[in-house]
Amino acid sequence: MRRHKDWTEDIKAQAKEQGWWRAGSAVIAAVSGGPDSMALLHLLKEMAKTEPMRLVAAHANHQFRGEESDAEAELVRRTAAEWGIPLETASLGMPQYIEETGENAQSAAREKRYAFLREAARKHGSPYVLTAHHADDQAETVLMRVIRGTGVGGLAGIPNRRREDRLELIRPLLRITKCELLDYCKRNGVPYAVDSSNADRHYFRNAVRLDLIPVLERYNPRLKESLARLADMAAADDDYMEEQAARVFREAVTPSGDGFRLERRRFRGLHVALQRRLIKLILNCSANPRQMLDFRQVEEMLEALSQESPASVRLDIGDGWTLIREYDETYIGPGQLETAHFAYSADEGTSEVAIPETGGRIRLEWLDGAVHGASGSRNEACFDADEVRYPLLIRSRMTGDTMRPYGLNGTKKVQDMFVDAKVPRSKRDRLPLLADADGRLLWIPGLRRSDHALVLEATRTTLRVTYETEN
């Protein structure tokens, strides 16, 4: 066992680095009355002697164990008064609350407890709440998650620090074992209470601590240390992978209504670990991310995005969300995109037509002489203005639409042109088609123009049409 001076110095160095141990700072110590939290409170009291900080103890009496709970509250009150530490207390009345609401006892108690701690921190102007989670808690948490099923993020266990509602939750004892804390209490005369519910094997954590860990320690006497070390390594790996996934999300994912779009080619070029995390980042934007982040769900989406055929895939992923993959483009989000039908006219001299259904606009310019337009721009087309019948019509596609594409003999169905160009189905009704008053299709932006009204050397006036989108 390390000398307590060694690990207390480690905690002080960590506190300095994290910024919560400094003169004038205020910290809230969550104190249950057990040996872990009482050791933490005593350690903070000693630290405040050399670097004066405002220390406040906070005790929540859940009232699950009647007189025993009240005795713990009295112990904390008496000790805080003796040590000259301000104390915030709350009686949460959990048994009655659980009976009235039917909520899960442990999750409800945690919710009420943290609400109390947030209020205590707000009252005393402290951005920090310190809890006494220790290395044994960490080992138990990792093992419990392995049993229930977890990924790398779950193996990271309890984080050393975490932000929650503008509050910094800090666990300075995560690398200190229970035995070390008990020894600290003994050496320093720190009083504490023993929670009788810790022996109740009805709770999964207790069963893991009392039954499973002792069995596994026969094969590895340093099991807890190994699990805590695993949590440290997994946390570092998870942080790095989350940063990379966030970077890819910013670069490769674009908002689309209440959902998101991504290019399948870019997605398939990622390592599978990043693919999974990117999917999870998108699903985290749903109304019920916990419901959506099932492993099998993520794997089903991964397969839909990775497979070569069919060219089009639709997948119901729950909570009203769908995955729609069309050729190289994928939409992930609520429901199915509505079909957009629109038609706008443009008289001779009209300079601009907005198309709200597509989020774009058509610009029209009448230029003197023969102008052939920007080379290679598929969102611009030039026509002989005298060969075009007005008013022009800018509309969505219609069943049976055909065009005489420039460079081809005869007509071709617009539907076939979309298929040949691998235009996603969800985009086909949102592409504007330019037609003249005779019903001739002149141009499909980004796709093809017709062989009508070509700009020649004899052209007196050129009509230049440009399609601009917000994205």
From TrEMBL:
Q: What is its EC number?
A: 6.3.4.19
Where does it live in the cell?
Answer: Cytoplasm
Q: Which InterPro entries match?
A: Lysidine-tRNA-synth_C (IPR012796), Rossmann-like_a/b/a_fold (IPR014729), TilS/TtcA_N (IPR011063), tRNA_Ile_lys_synt (IPR012094), tRNA_Ile_lys_synt_N (IPR012795), tRNA_Ile_lys_synt_subst-bd (IPR015262)
List of residues binding ATP: S32, G33, G34, P35, D36, S37
**Which Pfam families does its entry note?**
ATP_bind_3, TilS, TilS_C
Per its record, what are the GO molecular function terms?
tRNA(Ile)-lysidine synthase activity
What catalytic reaction does the record list? cytidine(34) in tRNA(Ile2) + L-lysine + ATP = lysidine(34) in tRNA(Ile2) + AMP + diphosphate + H(+)
Question: Which coarse location class describes where this protein primarily resides?
Answer: cytoplasm
Q: Record keywords: Signal included?
A: no
Write down the superkingdom of origin.
Bacteria
Similarity field? Belongs to the tRNA(Ile)-lysidine synthase family.
Function noted in UniProt? Ligates lysine onto the cytidine present at position 34 of the AUA codon-specific tRNA(Ile) that contains the anticodon CAU, in an ATP-dependent manner. Cytidine is converted to lysidine, thus changing the amino acid specificity of the tRNA from methionine to isoleucine.
Description of its domains? The N-terminal region contains the highly conserved SGGXDS motif, predicted to be a P-loop motif involved in ATP binding.
Which HAMAP family does UniProt cross-reference here?
tRNA_Ile_lys_synt (MF_01161)
What protein am I looking at? tRNA(Ile)-lysidine synthase
Name its species.
Cohnella hongkongensis
Question: What high-level taxonomic lineage is stated for the organism?
Answer: Bacteria, Bacillati, Bacillota, Bacilli, Bacillales
